[in-house]
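Study this one:
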Amino acid sequence: MRQVVLDTETTGLDPALGHRIIEVAGVELVNRRVTRHFHRYLNPERDSDAGALDVHGLTTDFLQDKPRFREIVDELLEFVRGAELIIHNAPFDAAFLNAELSLVGLEPLEGHCASITDTLRLAKELHPGKRNGLDALCERYQVDNSARTLHGALLDAQLLAEVYLAMTRGQETLAMELRETADWNLGSEGAAARVPILVLTATDEEVAEHERVLLEIEKASQGHCIWKRLYARAAETG
C-alpha cells in the first residue's frame, strides 16, 4: 500500500482571488513505513498576504529565485501518481493544487492519485467536539511538534504522517499480525504438521465483541479493515 502525506503553504486563503502555492511537500509511506519525501519552495510571482506571511514566514525575497509551479509539476505528479493522498483539511490544499494544475492545462489532482483522505475529517469523527488542528493532534498522540514555530509544508507533512500512523495504529497491528502468521506458515510447514492444533470455539459474547472492534476499525480506517476484506474473500470462495 502506497500513501503520500501532502501539505502546501500559500500566499493567502483563496485561489479564486489569485493566491498561489509557495511551498509543497510530500512524505511517502509504503506499507506504513516512511520511505522518501518530496519538497519544493516555489516562486508564486506575487506577494503573500500579511496574515499568511505571519503563518509561514516565507518572504517574497526568499522565494524570488525559486522555480515556478510549472517547472516542478511533472516531478510532483510523478511522486503522487497512483497513491492515496493523506491531507489535513484536504479541500483547502486540493483547491490550490487544482488551481495550479489548471493554469498549466492539466487535469485535477484526483485524476493523478488513487484517492484523497482528509485527516481533519477523520479526526473529527474520532474526536467529536475537540480541537483537531495539527498542533492539537500532535499533543493528543504525543508527537513532538516543538520545532513547529512557523508552518512549513515539509515539517507539517512529517508531523501529519506521524499523527496519521498513530490515529490508525490498530489497523497496523492487525496487518503486522497477518504478515507474521503468513510468514510462519510458509516457513514452517513440516513443523506445523507435527504439532496438534487445539481449536477453541469463541463464545457468543466474544464474537459480538470481535464484531464491535471490527466496526470501530472499519470506521477509523474509512472502509479499509483488513479482517473485513478477508471475511468477504472467504465468503466468495466458499
